[in-house]
Automatic annotation (TrEMBL):
A molecular-function term among this protein's GO annotations: dihydroneopterin aldolase activity
Pfam families documented for this protein: FolB
Domain Dihydroneopterin aldolase/epimerase: 4-111
Species this protein is from: Candidatus Mesenet longicola
Protein name, entry field: Dihydroneopterin aldolase/epimerase domain-containing protein
GO biological process: folic acid-containing compound metabolic process
């Protein structure tokens, strides 16, 4: 088994429960660690194309309008796990601007 980590992938999404948050995009930083089974696959050919995978994650997050980080994390994790090559996924979504005076607020979920 191998792991692929994509750390702090920036995405801009409409996320939040306040009216003003529903009309602006806010920066999110997404970290994903996926476990894949290489098995008998050709070691020279990627099982998961991590560039394409990262772009899919970014596009999904940017198109997902959610009230809460927890809601977005659940939807994104379910989307990621649709790929049958992925055995396990650790997902962190960080919202840097969530609270004034706080370094970061994030949600972590895994499956």
């Amino acid at each position: 088994m191998q792991k692929i980590r994509i750390k702090n992938l920036p995405a801009y999404a409409k996320i939040g429960c306040y009216n003003w948050e529903k009309v602006i995009t806010q920066k999110l930083l997404i970290t994903v660690i996926i476990s894949i089974n290489v098995g008998a696959a050709n070691i020279n050919a990627p099982v998961v194309d991590y560039y394409e995978f990262s772009q899919d994650i970014k596009s999904f997050a940017q198109g997902c309008e959610c009230n809460f980080l927890e809601e977005m994390a659940k939807k994104l994790l379910d989307y990621i796990m649709l790929n049958d090559k992925i055995l396990h996924c650790y997902l962190q979504i960080l919202k840097p601007s969530a609270l004034d005076g706080v370094g970061e607020v994030s949600v972590i979920i895994e499956k």
